[in-house]
Structure formats: C-alpha cells, structure tokens
Specification:
The protein is an all-alpha fold. It has two domains: about 40-315, Up-down Bundle (Methane Monooxygenase Hydroxylase, Chain G, domain 1); about 415-679, Helix Hairpins (Orthogonal Bundle), CATH 1.10.287. About 95% of the residues lie in helices and about 0% in strands. The protein is built from nine helices and no strands. It has helices at about 5-15, 20-85, 90-110, 120-175, 180-205, 210-230, 235-345, 365-540, 545-679. Helix 2 runs antiparallel to helix 7 and helix 4 runs antiparallel to helix 7 (about 235-345). The longest helix is centred in the middle third of the chain and has 177 residues, at about 365-540. The chain starts with a helix and ends with a helix.
Length: about 675
C-alpha cells in the first residue's frame, strides 16, 4: 500500500468527501482553534506555575530586604542605647524605644504570614529577644532617671550644702583662733572634695575603685569630725555637720548602688541581649538565604520542566495542525486541479473531454455538472455556427448584386450634386465678396460720419467758447475801467494824506521848539533858586524861610526839567513815526500811479482782444455750417452702402440655402445607399 493511497484514505476518514467546502473549512478551523486553545491552556498553566514561583522568590527578596532593614535598625537601637547610658539624653532613649517598638511590630507582621512557616522558629526567637531587649531598655531608662535624680540631689544639693557648712565652720574656727579645729575642718573639706571627685569619676566610668575610694574618703571625713567633736566646745555646729555628712553618705551609697546596677545592666544584660538579638537576626538571614536558594532551585526546575512541556505541546500542535491543513487543502485543491484541466481543454475547443467528479455532492460536483452543461452548450453552438455560415454565404451573394446597382446610382447622383455644388460655391463666393465690400464701405462711412460729427461738435464747442470769451473780455474791460477809476481816487487820497502828514511833521517841529524854551526857563529857574539858597545861607536865621522857598522852587524846576525831557522824548518818537508815515505815504502814491498806468494799458489790450475774439466766433460759425453739410452727405453715402450690404446678405443667404439643399441631397443618397447595402 503506497503513501499516496494512505493519504487519500486519511483524507476520506478526516474529511467527509460529500461534505460542502464551507463545512470542511469550518471543521479545519475548529480543529486548529481547539489545538490553539489546548496549547494556550497548557502554556497558561505553565506560566501560572512559573509566576507563582517568581512570586515566592519576590516575597523572599522582600522578606530579605525587610530583615536587612530590621538588622540595621537593631544596630541603630543599640547605638542609641549606648549613647543614652553615657549622655543620659532623652532623645536618645526615645529613639531607641521607638526603634525597638517598630522592630517588634514588623516581627509580629512577619510572624502572621502563613507563607513563612519554615522560618517561624527564627522569627519567634527574634521576637523573644526583641521583647527582652525592650524590657532591659525600659529598666535602663528607669535607672538612668533615678541616677540622675539622686545625683542631682546628692552631688549638687547635699554636697554643695555640706561644703558651705564646712566652709562656715572653718571661718568660725579662724574667728575664734582655734587652729586645731581649723586644720581638722580643712582635712574634712579635703576628704569631701576627694569623695565628690571619686564619685563623679565612678558615675562616668563605673570603676569599682572609684566607688570604694569615694566611700573611704567619706569615712575619713567622718572620723575627723568625730575626733574634732570629742575635743571641741562647739558641739552643736559639729553635730549639724555630722548630720549633713550622714545624709551625704547615704546619698553617695545610693548613687553607687544605682551606678553599679546600671553598669551591670548595660555591660552585661544589654550586651548579652543585644548579642542574642543580633544572633537571632543572623539566623533569620541565614534561613532566608537557604529559603531563597531552595526557591530559586525549585523555580529553575519548574521553568525547565514547563519549557520542555510547552515545547512538546507546541510541536504536537504544529504537527496536528499541519496534517489537518494539508488534508483540508488537498481535499479541495486536487478536484479543483482536475476541474481546471477540463476547463482548459474546453477552452481549446476540445468538446470530447470528460468532466471529472460529476458524481460528488459538494460544490466541486456542482461545478462539474455545470461544466458539463456548458460543454453541451458549446456543441450546440458549433452546430448553429455551421448553419449560420451557409446562410451568410447566400446573403453575401445577394448583397453583391445590390451593391453593383447602388454604385451606378450613386455615381450618377454624385455627378449632378458636384455640378450644383460648384455653381452654388461660385454664387456664395461672389455674395461673400460683395458682402465684405459692403461691410467695409459701411465701416468706412460710419468712421467718416463719426469723425465729421466729432468735428461738427468741436466746431460748435469752439463757437460757444468764442462767444463766452468775447463776453468775458467785455466784462474784463468794464472791470478794468472801474479799477482805473478806483486807482485815480486812491492816488488823490494818497496826495491828501501826504500833505496832512507833512503838516503833522511841521507841527511836531514847532512843539519841539516850545519844549526847548521850557527847558531853558527851567534851567534859569533852577539857577535862580540856587542863588536864593546861597543868599539865604548868608542871611543866617533871618533867611531860613526864604531858603525853604528857594528849595521848593529848585525842586519844581527840577521836576519841570524832567517833564520837559519826557516830552522831548515823546516828541522825538512822534517825529520819527511821522517821517516813517511820510515815506510810506509817498510809496503808496507812487504805487497807485503805477497801477493807474497799468490799468490804462490793460484797458486798451482788452478792447483789441475783444475785436479779435468776435472775428474768431464769426469764422467758427461758418466752419460749423460747412461741417454739418459734409456730415449730411456722408450719411447719404452710408445709407446707400447699407442698402448694398442688405442685398449682398440676401444673396449670401440664398447661396447658403442652396448649399444646404445640396448637402441634404448628398445625405439622402448616402442613407439610401447604406440602407440598400444593409438590406
């Protein structure tokens, strides 16, 4: 059994031979879509599995980042706690407390996650150590607060008061002259200072020798006070000092106890708890590293398996889809190829060809049966073509005889039509020539008439303008006469004005003479007043009244001289203006005389121009009459030319009508010939 027969059998099994082509194509698409859906489902499943693995890896990375942040926060908390122990700053304590609270909250959040069951033990250990560290930190804060309060009360309170009391006692002993008491109290003060110094050092360093030294110095101060009290008369003041010393010793003991407890807590418990907390976070980091490595390995295995499975699914889908597509294609293309071969043979006029696949019940079978009907139609068409060829041969012989008769008739008619056409063309040519001549003559006559009419109009316009010019010249002559009369009157008035101005100049000269006389009289009066003043001064007391009168006369003479000068100035100005007026009036008189002479000359010229204008108007009227006569003659010529043109146009219309009749005759003959040939 061959491979091709196997494929044919597979085609018959997979594809229904009698099914329609849309059904086959739909079945193929359904198979391909099903393969695509199955492949997509497997791939989506693989992607979901890988996405879950990636999500777990991302969560592990986020957890590692969180643990790393917590580890750094724990280191910051331990640093803040150590600085708080040294400095006692509240901000350090609050920073450490807030940090440890944040660590506890984050650890509780991590412990609540169900995906971190493998790390629950490490998270629980870290939470436990964090709680222990928080408890120790709270106790540390309480101890620091207590130490600060006791230290402030003992060192800064009782210590200062005790030092003041000892200083006052030393001052009293010196006042009393008790040298022994002064020395003993100085030793007490020195012991107290040493105790305070050792206590301050012990508070800062927590060295046991400093605490022991502070207590030993206080014991020495106590012994010195006891010895001094046993041999001194001032027992009351010493008892008071001993009471202060007892209080100070109790306070120092309390401070030392608090510092020791604080030192043990910070250096032992806090260090141990901090180390345990660091170890817990280290273990948590190691567990996270192990978890990340495990998840990464599992993810790589999952990705590799899913890749292999997806590749296998894709290969199977491609193979199945390819086989399905090939089967579907060949079930359609092979019958179509056979059908195409049969159609090609029919196109080559091979009417004996066998139509394949006519027994099929699909679209290809329908095409085969339709092609068979087409082949039968071609056979019948071939028979009809043979019969039509015989009928056409008989009709062709009959048309040849009719064509011979038509050619003879057409030749005769065309000869007659040609003669008529020649004659009509000659008539039309002559009519067109005559019409052109009439048109050109009419145009020339119209042009000449228009020119003549324009000349007539221009001549009439000149005549009217000449009449108007003559009238204007007459008016100018009349106005010139009036201007000459006005000029004469102005000349007479100018002469009279010149006389008046000259008289005014003479009067001004006379006024000047009078002013000179007044000036001389004023000068003489002034001289007389001066002489009178001199004589009055010679007369002494008797001439005093005369001197006053002489002074007044002198004043009046001076005023008269001043007024005379003002009048002289005004008269000089009047004389200057009068001379200017005389000169102006003389110029006006000369100008009026010149204008009078010119007016007379213009009047003579106007009279001559009026006579010339009258001659021009008369000649213009005569020219207008001649132009009108010429225009009338040209109008008569134009009328005759128009009559000739009308006759030529009628002749041309008749010639054109004859040509049209000849054309219609030729068309009728051609139509007859074509119709006869078609028949």
């Amino acid at each position: 059994m061959s491979w091709s027969s196997c494929l044919v059998d597979l085609e018959r099994v997979l594809v229904f031979q009698n099914s329609s082509i849309p059904v086959r194509i739909g079945a193929g698409f359904i198979v391909i879509i099903a393969l695509f859906g199955i492949t997509s489902g497997f791939l989506i499943r693989a992607m979901q599995s890988m996405a879950f693995g990636f999500q777990r890896s991302a969560e592990a990375l986020d957890l590692a980042r969180t643990v790393s942040d917590l580890d750094g926060l724990v280191a910051q908390i331990r640093f803040e706690a150590s600085r708080f122990i040294v400095t006692g700053e509240d901000t350090r304590f609050r920073g450490a407390s807030d940090g440890i609270a944040a660590v506890s909250a984050r650890l509780e959040t991590l412990a609540a996650g169900d995906h971190l069951a493998v790390m629950s033990q490490a998270i629980q250990s870290a939470s436990t150590h964090t709680a222990s560290f928080a408890t120790a930190l709270a106790r540390l804060g309480e101890l620091v607060v207590q130490r600060r309060a006791v230290e402030d009360q003992v060192v800064n309170g009782l210590g200062i008061d005790l030092r003041r009391q000892v200083t006052a006692a030393i001052r009293d002993a010196r006042t009393r002259g008790d040298t022994g008491a002064t020395i003993a109290l100085g030793a007490v003060q020195e012991s107290l200072l040493l105790a305070r110094l050792r206590l301050q050092r012990f508070i800062q360093t927590a060295v046991a020798s400093d605490g022991t030294g502070a207590l030993a110095a206080l014991s020495e101060a106590r012994a010195e006070l006891d010895r001094l009290a046993s041999g001194s008369a001032a027992s009351d003041s010493l008892d008071h000092l001993q009471g202060y010393l007892t209080l100070f010793e109790d306070g120092v003991t309390t401070v030392i106890t608090l510092v020791r407890e604080l030192h043990v807590l910070s250096e032992t418990d806090m260090q141990r708890i901090g180390s345990d907390l660091g170890a817990a976070f280290t273990q948590l980091n190691q567990d996270l590293t192990t978890l990340s490595a495990t998840q990464r390995a599992e993810l790589m295995v999952t990705v590799s398996q899913r890749e292999s499975f997806a590749l296998l699914v894709v290969i199977l889908a491609v193979v199945i889809g390819g086989v399905t597509a090939w089967t579907m294609g060949t079930s359609i293309t092979r019958p179509l190829a056979r059908m195409t071969d049969a159609m090609t043979k029919l196109a080559d006029r091979d009417l004996a060809v066998t139509i394949p696949d006519a027994q099929r019940q699909d679209e290809i079978g329908q095409m085969a049966r339709a092609l068979g009907v087409f082949r039968d139609g071609l056979v019948r068409a071939a028979d009809l073509e043979a019969e039509q060829a015989a009928a056409e041969a008989e009709a062709r012989a009959r048309r040849d005889a009719i064509d011979a008769l038509n050619r003879q008739f057409v030749a005769s008619v065309e000869s007659i039509v040609a003669g008529l056409g020649t004659a009509s063309n000659d008539v039309r040519s002559a009519a067109e020539t005559l019409s052109d001549i009439a048109v050109r003559a009419s145009r020339q006559a119209s042009t000449v008439a228009a020119t003549t009419e324009q000349a007539t109009t221009n001549v009439q316009t000149v005549a009217v303008a000449s009449d108007q010019l003559a009238q204007s010249i007459a008016n100018v002559g009349e106005q010139t006469g009036r201007a000459a009369e006005a000029t004469r009157v102005a000349a007479e008035a100018a002469s009279e004005t010149d006389g008046v101005v000259r008289n005014l100049s003479s009067s001004a000269d006379q006024i000047g003479a009078v002013v000179d006389l007044i000036r001389r009289i004023a000068a003489q009066t002034n001289l007389l007043a001066l002489n009178a003043t001199i004589e009055a001064s010679r007369a002494g007391a008797a001439g005093r009244g005369f001197a006053v009168v002489a002074q007044e006369v002198k004043t009046l003479a001076s005023q008269t001289a001043q007024a005379t000068d003002d009048i002289q100035t005004s008269i000089d100005a009047i004389l200057d203006d009068t001379r200017s007026a005389v000169a102006a009036v003389s110029g006006i008189a000369d100008a009026v005389a010149t204008a009078r002479h010119l007016s007379a000359t213009v009047a003579v010229a106007v009279e001559e121009q009026g006579m010339v204008t009258a001659d021009i108007a008369r000649n213009t009227v005569e020219a207008a009459a001649g132009t009108r006569a010429a225009a009338k003659g040209i109008a008569d010529v134009s009328t005759a030319v128009k009559t000739t043109g009308s006759a030529a146009e009628r002749m041309l219309a008749a010639a054109r009508s004859l040509v049209a009749d000849i054309d219609r005759l030729r068309t009728t003959v051609d139509t007859y010939v074509v119709a006869s040939r078609a028949a």
